[in-house]
Amino acid sequence: MTKTKPDPVTRIQALARSFPALSGAPGVILPGIDPWDPDRLDAWAGEMVAHQAWGRRSAALFILSVWDNDQTWASGRFDPVWAMGKWADGDRAAFAAWAAAPWWSDGGNAVRRPRRDSREGRERFGRAGSGTKTP
Questions:
Q1: Does 108 map to a domain?
Q2: Does 133 fall in a domain?
């Protein structure tokens, strides 16, 4: 029996729906989540600043960072310390569930990134704590 990898879009949508801050009322289509449109979610997250909906914005920024952490999102960068202070218990639980078995999409190409303290990570990121790549 061959295991198939889950579709990255389906996976990111499920992750987004696990955050109460991003859950709409029944029948409400969440902007950028269903259907998946990271640019629309980015624009929506930017609008949350005007509404001072910091928990919703932080959840959207987290989802965008899982989708493509190398992308510069117009709405900002995800800050986990800030988010922990703004999220309700359900959002912190959703983040903790992801953190227990983290994965990244890289814009639709699901990958598992090397840890910084692994051999592959040291080759990619440089010596631990040095902030520079090794030649």
A1: yes
A2: no
Range of the domain at 37: 8-22+31-125
The DSSP-derived string for 87-115 is --HHHHHHHHHHHHS--B-TTT--B-PPP
Within-domain flag for 70: yes
What tokens does 15 get? Answer: 């992750």
Tokens for 126, please give them: 């440089």
Retrieve residue 56's tokens. Answer: 């919703």
Which band of pLDDT confidence, cut at 50, 70 and 90, is reported for residue 25?
Answer: low
Is 3 part of a structural domain of the chain? no
Secondary structure tally for the chain: helices H, strands E = 6, 0
Give the C-alpha separation, 16 to 55, whole Å.
13
What's the pLDDT tens digit per position in 84-96?
Answer: 999 999 999 999 9
The overall longest dimension of the chain from CA atoms, in Å, is 54
Three-state DSSP state, 1:
coil
Q: How far apart are CA 22 and CA 31, in angstroms?
A: 9
Of all residues in the chain, the percent with pLDDT exceeding 70 is: 71
Domain total of the chain? 1
